[in-house]
Automatic annotation (TrEMBL):
A Pfam family it matches: DUF7987
Keywords: Membrane, Transmembrane, Transmembrane helix
UniProt protein name: 1,4-dihydroxy-2-naphthoate octaprenyltransferase
InterPro entries: DUF7987 (IPR058293)
Transmembrane regions listed in the UniProt entry: 35-52
Length: 62
């Protein structure tokens, strides 16, 4: 069985690739698209998992 954390990370990593491509197409700057890739692929899933872990720890989770 796949954990919730793994599903969240996988979804954000898969979403990060097209987001980075769109940012590259819109701005023409690799640096900005790389930052978008990091933000969506690494930072966002970490924040979401931390939030959901906190809800479960407080007893308000599903």
């Amino acid at each position: 069985m796949v954990s919730r954390q793994t599903l969240v990370v996988t979804a954000f990593v898969l979403a990060a690739l097209p987001v980075a491509y769109l940012v590259e197409a819109a701005t023409g700057q690799f640096t900005v698209s790389f930052l978008a890739l990091l933000a969506v692929g690494v930072v966002a899933p970490s924040l979401v998992n931390d939030y959901l872990d906190g809800r479960e720890r407080d007893g308000n989770g599903v």
